[in-house]
């Protein structure tokens, strides 16, 4: 009996639940998501390696919702999740119809750079911010928290 109890305890520990996720990996990104809050004006847009002049594009982040504005009108709404533990940091846009856009981002003070695959057939995330064929890059400036 004395040998069975320690063996039983060992078996129970073997099937214990997994540990909590590491900091920064929780759904939504915690503190990093707070840093993205506010209004962001698009300073520069590069699509497929071609740069476009600045226009009236804007992104607004409130909570876990990102709204894209063009010409002062909300055009697209996404739920966002961030993973700041990755390098480069990862950002996911999730649409209401189940569509997902996988991005990378860099946040330095009040400047935000995001990069995404601009090809519906492409898989995965971009690996850097250089842009080029099949990629889109925004450089944004915070206008309001």
Describe the protein's architecture and organization.
By secondary structure, the protein is mostly beta strands. The protein has a single domain, classed as Beta Barrel (Lipocalin). About 10% of the residues lie in helices and about 45% in strands. Strands 1-3-4-5-6-7-8-9 form an eight-stranded antiparallel barrel. The longest helix has 11 residues. The protein is globular, with a radius of gyration of 21 Å. The termini are far apart.
Q: Which features characterize this protein?
A:
eight-stranded antiparallel beta barrel; 145 residues; disordered N terminus; 47% strand; Lipocalin; mainly beta; 2 helices
Largest sheet: 8 strands, antiparallel, barrel
- How much of the sequence lies in strands comes to over 45%
Mean pLDDT: 84
What's the gyration radius in Å? 21 Å
Order of helices and strands: HHEEEEEEEEE
Give the beta-strand count: 9
CATH class: Mainly Beta
**Number of domain units:** 1
Structural category: mainly beta
Write the layout of secondary structure elements.
Elements: H1 4-14, H2 31-35, E1 38-47, E2 50-52, E3 57-62, E4 65-70, E5 73-83, E6 89-94, E7 100-108, E8 111-117, E9 135-144
Antiparallel strand pairs: 1-2, 1-3, 1-9, 3-4, 4-5, 5-6, 6-7, 7-8, 8-9
Summarize the structure.
With 145 residues, the chain is mostly beta strands. The protein has helices at 4-14, 31-35, and strands at 38-47, 50-52, 57-62, 65-70, 73-83, 89-94, 100-108, 111-117, 135-144.
């Amino acid at each position: 009996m004395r040998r069975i109890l320690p063996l039983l305890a060992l078996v129970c520990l073997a099937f214990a639940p997994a540990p909590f996720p590491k900091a920064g990996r929780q759904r939504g990104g915690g503190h990093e998501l707070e840093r993205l809050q506010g209004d962001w004006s698009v300073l520069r847009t590069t699509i497929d390696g071609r740069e476009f002049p600045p226009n009236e594009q804007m992104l607004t982040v409130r909570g876990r919702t990102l709204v894209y504005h063009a010409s002062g009108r909300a055009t697209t709404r996404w739920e966002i999740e961030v993973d700041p533990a990755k390098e480069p940091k990862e950002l996911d846009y999730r649409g209401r119809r189940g569509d997902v856009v996988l991005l990378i981002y860099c946040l330095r003070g009040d400047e935000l750079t995001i990069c995404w695959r601009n090809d519906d057939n492409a898989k995965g995330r971009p690996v850097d911010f250089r842009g080029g064929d099949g990629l889109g890059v925004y450089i944004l400036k915070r206008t309001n928290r």
